[in-house]
Structure formats: C-alpha cells, structure tokens
Amino acid sequence: MLNLAYSIDDTVVINEEIYEVNLAFDNVLRLFDMLNDNELTDADQITIGLEMFLGEPLEKSLDEQEEIFYKIFKSTVGQDTEDSKLVDIEGNPMPSMESSQDDKKKVYSIKQDAAYIYASFYQDYGIDLIEAQGELHWYKFQALLAGLRQDTKFKEVIEIRTMELPKGKGSAKHREEVKKAKEAYKLKLE
C-alpha cells in the first residue's frame, strides 16, 4: 500500500529470509493474467508467480514455494481491501472507482480498458505507460488510476457504465442515447 510517510519497500521478510519483489505495474498485471490462466496447474502458477515476483526460480520444495508465494502476494498486491481503502488527511474515505458496497458490479477492466487507461494517463500526467513498463510501481499506478480527472476518457467511460437510465415523461430519447452509450462501452466477460 502507498504511504506517503515512508518510502516504498519492495522487500518481504519470510522466515528470516529477505525477498526483493518486482512490483512494477506491468509485472503485476502479467501476474494477474497468469493467475487467471485456467490451463496452468496450481503448482505451475505458484512456481511461475514466484519467478515473476523474484526474477528467478526459487529452489525450494513446492510446499515452501506455496507458503512464500502466498505471503508475498498477500503482503503486496493482495492486501485486504479494508487496509488499502484511500482516506483523506482526516481519515474520511475518499471516493473510489470501485463500486459501492451495495453494488459489487465491476465497472472497469484493466485489460479491456487498456487503451482508455493509456490515453488518460498520457492526457492527465504525461505518462506513457508503455515507456513506464518496468519502472512505474504498482502502488503508484493504482493511486494515479484512482486520481484521474473526470474529463479523461477512462473516467468518462466509467461514468457511462454507471449512469442511471433517465426516467419520467419526455426522457425516452435521452434514455435511448444512454442505452446506446452503455451498450457501446459495456464490459465483456473475461
């Protein structure tokens, strides 16, 4: 989790061993892709995941690798959502692109919305995400994604996806326009 009071520490200590972890945003995104690959066995995912995190194979038993992978994942990219909720300086929850507690519906996909995210980062921050691969940290990427201005394409797409359909008399034309926009930007099943 990003904490402005401290520098980002990419080391994880497990059983008195220190592991330097690669948390570049593109590496983390590839890790998520790999973990969602149904053709890989759990053992393969653990072995490959550790190699992605550490940059080299880990010569330990599968049980040890499983424990290390789980602890690294849990303490870095898999932190509990309660621990990683953004709050303001007074501790109040900040608005988020995540859906509300009542509505668990997914409103964006890093994969499907990649072009919108790329364009929005370039527009808002002047960051070319392709050139930032291997450099931009996962925690920074998440913070920048959440902080995009409303006038970026990515935020506009999310607004369309979450927009309520107009109700009442005289709104039939507007309702159809909103339906068409929602259909054009709807998330496809991954």
Task: Give the arrangement of secondary structure elements.
Blueprint: E1 11-14, E2 17-20, H1 25-35, H2 42-54, H3 62-75, H4 114-125, H5 138-146, H6 153-162, H7 172-184
Antiparallel strand pairs: 1-2
Tell me what you see in this structure.
The chain has 190 residues and is mainly alpha-helical. The protein folds into 2 domains: 11-75, no CATH class; 114-184, no CATH class. The chain has 7 helices and 2 strands, in the order ββααααααα. It has helices at residues 25-35, 42-54, 62-75, 114-125, 138-146, 153-162, 172-184, and strands at 11-14, 17-20. A two-stranded antiparallel sheet has the order 1-2. α2 (42-54) packs across α3 (62-75). The chain is elongated. The model is unreliable at 80-84, 87-92 and 97-103 (pLDDT under 50).
Task: Provide the structure class.
Answer: mainly alpha
Oligomer: single chain
Low-confidence segments: 80-84, 87-92, 97-103
Return the average pLDDT rounded to an integer: 86
Number of helices: 7
Topology, number of strands = 2
Q: What percentage of residues falls in helices of 4 or more residues? A: 40-55%
DSSP strand content: under 5%
Distance between the termini: 26 Å
Q: Secondary-structure element order, as H and E?
A: EEHHHHHHH
What spatial order of strands do you see in the largest sheet? 1-2
Number of domains: 2
The major beta sheet can be summarized as: 2 strands, antiparallel
* Envelope shape: elongated
